[in-house]
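An instance as discussed:

___
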Amino acid sequence: MLKGFKDFLLRGNVVDLAVAVVIGTAFVAIVTAFTTGIVNPILAVFGGDDEMGLGIQLIADKPATFIQIGPIITAAINFIIIAAVLYFVLVLPSIHAKKRYGNEEDEKLSDVEVLIQIRDLLADGQRETGGKHEF
C-alpha cells in the first residue's frame, strides 16, 4: 500500500501540478499588483470625484447601496491576463512538445495489440497473486 502511494507521489504529474500551483499563485500576485497599481487608477478617472470609484449609486443618501463596477472590471482583467499567460506559456508549448516528442507508438496500436498488452498485464498480475483475485 505504501509503495503505491510512493509511486503516486513520485509520478511526474504530481510534481508538475505542485510546481504549477506555486507558480500560478506567484503570478496572481504579480497580476493583482499590476491591476491595483495601473488599472484601478485608470478606472478611477471614469468614476467621478467621489472616493467610491467607478460604480452606480442606487439610493442617493445611502452609501451602502453603491454598486462597485471597478472591482468587477479589475477581476475580469486579472482573469484574462492570467488565462492568456497560462495558455501561451504553459499549454501551447506542452501541446507542441507532445506532438514533437510524444510516443507515436501508443497512438498507432491496433485493437489486437492493445488486447494483447492487457492480457499480458493480467497474466503478470495473476502470477504475482498466485492466481487469486481480490475484489
Remarks:
- Strands lie at 55-57, 66-68.
- The chain has two domains: 2-102, 104-135.
- The first strand starts at residue 55 and ends at 57.
